[in-house]
Amino acid sequence: MKRYVATRAATMFGVLMITLLITISLVGSNMDTILKQGIVFQVRSEITENPAIAESFSSVEEFEGFIQSQIEQRTKILGLDEPWYSPQRIGLTMYKILLLDFGHATFLTSDAGSSDVKDIIFEKLPRTILLFTTATIIISVIGIFLGALSASKVGSVIDRITSSFAIISSSFPVWWIGMLMIFLFAFTYQIFPARATPDIPSSDPGYIGSLLYHMALPLITIVMIGFGSWAYLVRNFMVGIMQEDFIMAKRTIGIKQKKIIYTHALKNAAPPIVTILALSLSGSLGGAIITEAVFDWPGMGRLYFEAITVMDLPVIIGATYILTVFFLVSIFIADLLYGYFDPRMRTG
Amino acid sequence: MSSITPQEIKQEFLKSKIGIVGITILGILIATSIIAIIAIPVETFQEWNNPGNWISYPKVAIPIWVNIFMTEKIPEHKILENPNIQTNSEGEIMLLSHKFGVNFDYEFFPNDFIYVFSSEYSESALLQMSVIRPDGIELELLSTSLPYSNTKTIHSERIFSTDEAVKKNLLLQSEMFDFDLERLSVEDIVFSDTKTNEPLKGDYVFSIDTYSVNSEIKSHESKLIIGGKAFGMMGTDELRRDLAIGLLWGTPLALFIGLVVSIASVIAGLLYGVYAGYKGKKTDEVMMRFNDVIYALPALPFLIILSVTISNSIFVLVGFLMIFGWVGIAKVARSMSLQIKTRGYVDAANMMGQKNSKIVLKHILPQLLPYAFASIAISVPAAITTEAGLSFLGLGDPSFPTWGHILHDANTFGAAARGLWWWIMPPGVMIAIAGLAFVFIGNALDAIVNPKLKR
Question: Using a CB-CB distance cutoff of 8 angstroms, which residues of chain A are in contact with residue B408?
Answer without folding.
Answer: none
